[in-house]
Write a structure and sequence with these properties.
Strand content: under 5%
Largest sheet: none
CATH class: Mainly Alpha
Number of helices: 7
């Protein structure tokens, strides 16, 4: 199928996931059970080398998250780009087609993402934002559980685009 149609599909998926995440699955409404759907998509884009223009999608997702979340401008863009580069460089070393490496990627990337958020906010000296190790582990677990199903869904959709 057409690569530009595939790209447009991922832009639409990005917008839908961000709207769901920022309007329905917010920590205020869901408590500790709010997965980061956008980060899961970024992880999938990172571990799937067949998606063309994935870096552009990652930057657009980061900008959309910055816009919709109301946090420090550039925070999500920068952290998502770093997570993408980190995982994309690991793709050649691991086979992410099976579930165990995907679980590993979800756990590591989410933990890495929150460590980056922590470091960036500490450098900016934002005292009101605190992150605990329990919160990071909890978020990594939630993202992994939800991410396994989302990645399977994305793989099925990608298979249809490759026909």
């Amino acid at each position: 199928m057409n690569k530009s149609l595939h790209f447009i599909y991922y832009i639409l998926v990005s917008i839908i996931l961000i709207i769901v995440q920022t309007a329905i699955l917010t920590p205020r409404l869901m408590g500790l059970f709010s997965p980061d759907l956008n980060l899961i998509l970024i992880i999938y884009l990172s571990i799937n080398p067949k998606i063309s223009n994935a870096f552009i999608l990652v930057v657009l997702n980061g900008l959309l998250m910055d816009f919709f979340s109301g946090n420090t401008l550039g925070l999500h863009t920068l952290t998502r780009i770093i997570v993408y580069i980190f995982l994309r460089n690991s793709v050649s070393k691991f086979d992410f087609k099976e579930t165990p490496p995907q679980v590993f990627a979800l756990l590591i990337a989410t933990t890495f993402f929150w460590a980056l958020i922590f470091l960036i906010l500490k450098v900016k000296s934002i005292e009101s934002f605190t992150i605990s190790l329990n919160l990071i582990i909890h978020q990594a677990t939630i993202n992994t559980l939800v991410g396994i199903f989302l990645i399977k869904f994305f793989r099925k959709i990608d298979a249809k685009f490759q026909k």
